[in-house]
């Protein structure tokens, strides 16, 4: 499947978190097929190597593998400077990494559940923004995409931890948008993939028929289009079934 015509991201550098499986892996492959040099990060070296193998199969070029636990804040803080030292630029960042957290009535959640959820969600998002912003803001057509979840806008029973951490992440991202200079070329958006056949979806809904859901490869092109140079939304929450130029600020 051709993701986009030609290689519109040729010469550009893209970072993808959570690239060891699921949507993150599919996005990394799709960005590489669009011409980007990819830096891929996740906890597991072996799974990153599998993603790298797919990228090589499709493009003949490998990715830069960066095994990293995003819960290690000190290491996350070094990400931007390390990319600058190695690549000299960063044009695009797609934050796909995430954890399901605990699905439970609010009164049954424990303090450690909240601490882990806040660390994996809004704290990691804030740290990524802080370390990557200097590079993305100086790129000629910087792009940042953060995956989100509908529960952040429409909480449901037992999903309170997910709802709270996603809502906090989204607020952080949209605050960054509003802090940009008026004429900044950087475009920052949220993307809600919906129900996709991923490991996290299976963990959340083990009785759900995964064959009825779209595969990550079907979602990746929508995210890649948000990374292209040219007119883009700004501060929007976009969906796989909606036009890319939806609801800008």
From TrEMBL:
GO terms for molecular function: oxidoreductase activity. It comes from the Bacteria. The keyword Oxidoreductase applies. SUPFAM superfamilies: NAD(P)-binding Rossmann-fold domains (SSF51735). InterPro entries: NAD(P)-bd_dom_sf, SDR_fam. Belongs to the short-chain dehydrogenases/reductases (SDR) family. This is SDR family NAD(P)-dependent oxidoreductase. It comes from Komagataeibacter rhaeticus.
């Amino acid at each position: 499947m051709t993701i986009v015509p030609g290689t519109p991201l040729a010469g550009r550098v893209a970072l993808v978190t959570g690239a060891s499986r699921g949507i993150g892996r599919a996005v990394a492959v799709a960005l590489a097929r669009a011409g980007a040099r990819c830096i891929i990060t996740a906890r597991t070296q072996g799974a990153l190597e599998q993603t790298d193998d797919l990228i090589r199969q499709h493009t003949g070029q490998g990715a830069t593998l960066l095994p990293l636990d995003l819960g290690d804040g000190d290491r996350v803080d070094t990400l931007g400077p390390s990319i600058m030292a190695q690549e000299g630029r960063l044009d695009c960042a797609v934050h796909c990494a995430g954890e399901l957290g605990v699905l439970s009535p609010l009164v049954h959640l424990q303090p450690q559940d909240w601490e882990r959820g806040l660390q994996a969600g809004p704290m990691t998002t804030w740290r990524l923004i802080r370390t990557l912003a200097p590079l993305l803001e100086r790129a000629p057509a910087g792009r940042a995409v953060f995956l989100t979840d509908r529960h952040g806008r429409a909480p449901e029973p037992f999903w309170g931890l997910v709802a709270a951490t996603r809502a906090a992440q989204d607020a952080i991202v949209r605050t960054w948008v509003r802090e940009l200079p008026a004429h900044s070329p950087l475009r920052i958006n949220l993307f809600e993939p919906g129900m996709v056949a991923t490991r996290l979806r299976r963990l959340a809904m083990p009785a759900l028929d995964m064959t009825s859901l779209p595969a990550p490869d079907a979602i990746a092109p929508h995210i890649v289009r948000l990374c292209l140079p040219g007119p883009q939304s700004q501060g929007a929450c976009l969906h796989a079934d909606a036009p890319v130029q939806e609801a800008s600020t």
